[in-house]
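Lecture 7 notes: from sequence to structure.

We start with a single chain of 482 residues. Read the sequence below before looking at the structure.
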Amino acid sequence: MKKLIFAAAIAVVLFSCKKEATDLNTMENPYLPTLLAQLKDSLPAGDYQSLDTAAVFLTSPGKSGNYNLRIGFRGKPIAEDFLLVQTDETGKLKVGTIVHMDNTTPAYSYQFSGAVRVRSLSGKFSVQSDIADGRVVVLHSGRRPVLPTGTKTVTVLPAPDADWLPEVVVVGYSGGAPPTPYISLDALLSMVGNGDPGINNSGSQGDAGSGNGGGGNGTTPPAASAPPAPYSPLDPASVLTHTIGGGLSGIEPLDLEPEYMYSLPIVNVTNYFKCFDQVPSNGATYTIQLCADVPSNSNPDVSMSFSAGISAGHTFLVVTKSGGGVSISQAFGFYPASKLSAWNPMSAVSSVIRDNSNAEINASITMTLNSDQFNTIRAAAINLSTNPYELDKSNCSDYALGVFNAARANPLTVAPYMLRQAGIVMGNGLSSAPITIPITNSPQMIYEKLAAMKANGNPEASNIQLNLTNGLFSPNSHGECN
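Now the structure, written as tokens:
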């Protein structure tokens, strides 16, 4: 169950992926002074003197190798006004723009709307555009993009057959928390990329370019195979950041990771448990580990990550029996046997158990069992594996918690994850009403619960592991036995 999806039409690839983290601590201390020296030559004096170097946020480069840096202006919210530049790892300026954003999203609406104005660093070139359904209109020839079917446009997120994302997208909610809008930094930079970037490394301001702004009419959204653009919180000051050398604050972009769940081996859970009979039961020890892998290591609360596919996280189990010098572990989880319907993703489909060897773990809790409890979780794992997969009430987290709790006197429970879907705009201009779907159990809320238990000194705190650095993985499974 890896990476919850935000529009129900996209829930089709729910819950599964691996993540990669970029280490920003390789940044050298001269990075910011090097950049500021170039900005002093490229910006009008008033803009340069207004920069708030205490509000500086760096987005890691991912696969592109380019660093995206946002600098606020004194006395202005960074969610509304900021300088956006793209550099190499040394601070050498490649392209930049000054951005102003207006957020006019109506109350209780789950799609971002408003306007954006970008101008080159020299101030000689500017583009202004409305934002509709999370998309910068000027980047789409002034039209709301229509999906390949030509019959509808999905707000907030594209449909499963789309290979690109909106420039501004609300990515998730959890337990009633406010929405978290993310923006595509590359999309904002592209609006002036072919115009006058205003960059001058020779000591005087650059002349206006002859381009048309790059993001003008006819701009094609990036293909699915292109390196994913960094997505950054609209208001980075409101999210957790980490300190980088030179006094910068770093923000990891949304994890951009491929969908891989359908390549995992399907296993027979009964045969998985037969292998434990190879371990002598006299004096044996038994453990079960509940494991959650959230969609985004940099923000465990968000509903999903994206790249070639979209996923919403995953919850799975690791069961171990040791004795007589022999130890066997099996890692496994619950999945839909086929992709969910784009039109009715909450409908039940058949389920399968897949192997979760070497799967990333962001949060886990381990419980020691006696032989009777082990037999109880064996029966639960086999019996629950026959349930159909249903996104909202019989998903991977429901399965894993059901097995884990079968042997507990005090069941582990979590709050629902509130999945809010925007309305769907049809070709005739009509729109369905937004809906809220409670997901009974989810990796995000399991992570939140275990983190709270750890922080509050719960009696089981020593059995809880938390890791958002891609440093904790499940063991390899032993495999099936007859």
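Residues 261-466 form one domain. Keep this in mind for problem set 3.
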